[in-house]
Amino acid sequence: MKESLGAQTMSFPLPAYLVGSYDENGKANLMTAAWGGIVCSTPPCLAVAIQPSRLTHPSIVKNKAFTVGIPNSRLAEAVDYAGLVSGRKHDKFAATGLTPVKSQLVNAPSADDGPVILECELYQSLELGSHTLFVGRIVDVKAEVGLKTDSGALDLSKVDPLIFNCGGDYRQVGPAVGQAFSIGKNLKA
């Protein structure tokens, strides 16, 4: 039996992204975003939902670009801080000790300290109500050396992505439960 919890923002798991952009003065800024994910494979696209009141919102609109850092669990304190304060009043890079790096392909910065960075060109935006959904075409993914498996994919356990639990804490990814595109074959009869 299930009980109704009402309409609310709930999904498991949520990312703990660090979205990078340059403000109107060209200053590098980061914001933490949990509402986002992959939305298209061809072209490769990722979306993040951002409130218009956030400094990152007009920065993405102006520069037509943003980065999405996938931080690991050791960056949890910095990720949380980047979501607690505004870039209008605080230099988040200076306060956290994260290293700003200019993207090679888009007009946006990222924190060089995390394991994976996605460089995105603004592809589309959609006003949804309290948030704007920014869809970025992924033009490159940069990953620390040593994170790939023998097959060339990123090893989730080595990346150690930080995830946000809508219950109010940060988590790590747990153990594998089965091989994708394989364990369900037993039910194909």
Structure description:
It is built from four helices and twelve strands, in the order βββββαβααββββαββ. With 189 residues, the protein is mainly β. The chain has one domain (14-187): Pnp Oxidase, Chain A (Roll), CATH 2.30.110.10. A hairpin with a 6-residue loop joins β7 (100-102) and β8 (109-111). The longest helix is centred in the middle third of the chain and has 9 residues, at 76-84.
Helices and strands in order, then pairings?
Elements: E1 14-15, E2 17-22, E3 28-33, E4 36-40, E5 45-50, H1 56-63, E6 65-70, H2 76-84, H3 92-96, E7 100-102, E8 109-111, E9 116-127, E10 132-143, H4 156-159, E11 163-165, E12 169-171
Antiparallel strand pairs: 1-11, 2-3, 2-6, 4-5, 5-10, 6-9, 7-8, 9-10, 11-12
Q: What is the residue-averaged pLDDT?
A: 96
- Report the biggest beta sheet as strand number plus sense, adding barrel if it closes: 7 strands, antiparallel
Main CATH class = Mainly Beta
Number of helical segments with 4 or more residues: 4
Order of helices and strands: EEEEEHEHHEEEEHEE
CATH superfamily: Electron Transport, Fmn-binding Protein, Chain A
CATH fold type:
Pnp Oxidase, Chain A
- Count up the domains: 1
Q: Tell me how many strands there are.
A: 12
Write out key terms for the chains shown.
189 residues, mainly beta, Pnp Oxidase, Chain A, 7-stranded antiparallel sheet, 3-stranded antiparallel sheet, 4 helices, 12 strands, globular
